[in-house]
Fold this protein.
Amino acid sequence: MINIKEIRHPLTLHYLTIIRDNKTNGSNFKYALEKISYILASDVYSGLSTKERSVTTPLKKSKGFTVTSKIVLLPILRAGLGLVQGFIDLLPTAIISHIGLYRDEESLKPIKYYFKFPQFKAKENLKVIVLDPMVATGGSSAYTIEYLLNMGIRDINLVCLICAPEGIKAIEKRFGTKQHKYIKIITCSIDEKLNDKGFILPGLGDAGDRLFGTSEIL
């Protein structure tokens, strides 16, 4: 089984309720999403590697620590951009990469149209954080995870607001048990199910449209 963590922090419950509300406008949707991104980032970053170093305070010399993990944030365009803020504010040295996918109308499979990722001579101590607010069928997330595994990356964290059980099962089925240990899913909620059109219930609608205002009538 893939390691799945559902964060039930009081503030994620509070802000997720605001995000779900169909009366929440675009600016408040973005504000609540950014606030949740800090909580998610704090949890994911709790597993970072550090090394000891000395530091001199105004009073005396003391022991301190420096983060040594190499961090790459990989938002899935476009809705994944809404989760970047908290991660980059808490760790400004994190590298921001991007992947763009669309669904083929006939095969319904994800097609990559954009991918930009830094080149590393060594991938040890490299943690990739995939940002995707909605994991519905799991197709885009699974494609991205497989792409990273094929690159030799062995610490992949899929961070999302909400997941459908069908999406989680699809990701687990896509990868063998030997690969499960390289993958972790961090979410604020595992929702009920998908409807017949592939939308998460109760869900929150289309995260990208609500974040960028492309569903509003102007």
Q: What stands out?
A: Helices lie at 10-20, 26-44, 84-90, 139-150, 165-174, 177-180, 207-212.
